[in-house]
Structures are given as C-alpha cells and as structure tokens.
Amino acid sequence: MSLSDPGEGQNLRTFAAKMVFISIILSVLVSCVVIAIAGFFNVLPLPLLEALVHSVIMAWIVGGIVTGVMCSVIGKAIRKLHASHAEFERLSKTDTLSGLANRRAFNQCFDEVENDASLAIFDLDRFKGINDNHGHAAGDIVIKRAAAAIEDVFGEFHCVARLGGEEFAVIVRGGKRKDRLILIELARIRVSCLTINFNGTQLQTTVSVGVADIEPSRSKHDTFASADKALYLAKASGRNCVCHEEELQLSQAVDQLKSTLLAAS
C-alpha cells in the first residue's frame, strides 16, 4: 500500500472485507468439524443440528464483531499514518520562515516546466542594512511580509519559492511574455509599497528582479544563469526594477559602443 496514494484506502477496505468473510467461514468449518467429532462420541449437550445452527450464528456474530472492530482500528491508524505522511511531505517542501515552497520544491517544479513560462528571481534590496541596523528579528519580519506580498500577486497557479536568505524565485506560467512581465512588475510594486512596523520603527524595502524565459531549447541551468545575470543588471541599474534577459544584450551593446568611442577618442 502506498501512503502517498489515498486511493489505496479502497483496496485496503476490500481486502479487510475479504478477510472478514474468510475468517468467519474458517471458524464455521472448524466448529462444524469439532461438533461432528463431539457428536460422534455422544458428548454434545445439544442435538447435532441445533449445535451446528448455534455454531454458525455465533461464528458470524462474534467473528463479525471482532474483525469489524479490528478493521476499524487498523483503518483509523492507517488514516492517521497517511495524514502524517502527507504533512511530512508538505513540510519537506516548505520554507519554515516564509511559508513558501523551498528550493527542493522549486527544483521539482522547474524540472516539470518546458515552455510558455518565465523564471523571475527576486532579491530584496539593501537587506543587509536592515539586519545590521535593526537585528535579524526585523529581517525575518521583512522576509515574511515580502514573501506574503509576492505570493498574493501570483497565487497558487504559479510556483513561488524562497531560495534562501533574501532571494525568492517565481516560475510564472502561461500567457504571453508581456502578461508575465506585468505580473512580475506588479509584485515588485507590492513589495515597494510595504510599510513594516518593528518596535515603533517603520521599515521599508524594495526588490530587484531578473527574468529569463523558460524554453525547451536550453537547459535549466542556463535559464537560471540568464535570470541571475538579469538580476545583477537590475541591481546595477539602480535597484527596485525588473530586468529581462533581453536587456542584457542591449546593455552589452552599449558597453561595447562606449569602449569603442573611448578607444577612438
């Protein structure tokens, strides 16, 4: 029986029902043999037919009650075990601080997506300053609030995960690229609008985002690397903005042009 498949419970109930009937039939057969032997030696307190009838009735009553109680107890124990297994699976894929999916769950989701999706990496701006100036308790609250804001924008359809520290990742599924970028931009705005009260101090944060499109023609590693480079470009562009991987080519072209002009001058 697989604890990860709730449908296996039906197989268990069918098996238990079969065992009930088999145990009762076996007890009836054993009783009949014993009664027949006792009748042969004239040691039965009742007539043979009446003893057989009583034996069959008692076998069904006692056997049915005993096996029914046992199946109920076992079934209840298995349901609890299944619930515990499901909770363990959930916790093993959940980041304890933010409540989002953790890196393990994110990697599984990432492996399942082939196209019509974008990878967005969110990184809180100047987060070290919050920890240094207000302590890690303040940093934890900021992470929780930022995670809630990002998750509120994307919902359950898209995979929202905390990769570690102040870094989050979202696999934005479906729609056109521009629609996915609008969602990502909305999440950035939601984070920048947060006002977090910590011990009488108003804390605010912003987030920089790097985006890369998920395509079957390239590896997950390359996709992640492109999104990471786009994130660095967002940080270098002043933070609190969204940069798509296509902007990397434009940035590189501008840098080359600057180098050419400087060399020519």
UniProtKB/TrEMBL annotation:
Keywords in alphabetical order: Membrane, Transmembrane, Transmembrane helix
Coiled-coil ranges (or none): none
Pfam families linked: GGDEF (PF00990)
Domain GGDEF positions: 115-247
Catalytic activity: 2 GTP = 3',3'-c-di-GMP + 2 diphosphate
Domain of life: Bacteria
CDD domains: GGDEF (cd01949)
Record InterPro entries: Diguanylate_Cyclase, GGDEF_dom, Nucleotide_cyclase, Rev_trsase/Diguanyl_cyclase
Catalytic activity, EC: 2.7.7.65
Alphabetized PROSITE patterns for the sequence: GGDEF (PS50887)
Transmembrane regions: 20-41, 53-75
SUPFAM superfamilies according to UniProt: Nucleotide cyclase (SSF55073)
Keyword check for Protein transport: no
Gene Ontology molecular function, alphabetical: diguanylate cyclase activity
Stated name of the protein: diguanylate cyclase
Organism the protein comes from: Agrobacterium bohemicum
